[in-house]
Amino acid sequence: QPYTEALQALGVEVLVGESIARHLDSWLAEHAAYIDEVFLHRPHVAEQFLPHLERMEPQPRIGYVGHDLHYLRIEREAALKDDDGLRSEAQRWRKRELAVMARVDRIYYFSEVEIEELGTQVPAEKLRQIPLYAMELQALPDYAPSHAQELLFVGGYGHPPNVDAATWLVEEILPRIHQHLPSARLHLVGSNPPDSVRALAGNAVTVHGYVSDEELTALYRRVGAAVVPLRYGAGVKGKVIEAIASHVPLVTTDVGAEGIPDCEAVMWIENTAELLAQRLVRILSGDEDVGARLGQHEAWLATHFDTRRAAEVLARDLPAAEREA
Question: Using N-to-C axis directions, what is the helix angle for 238-245 and 291-305, rounded to 10°?
Answer without folding.
Answer: 120
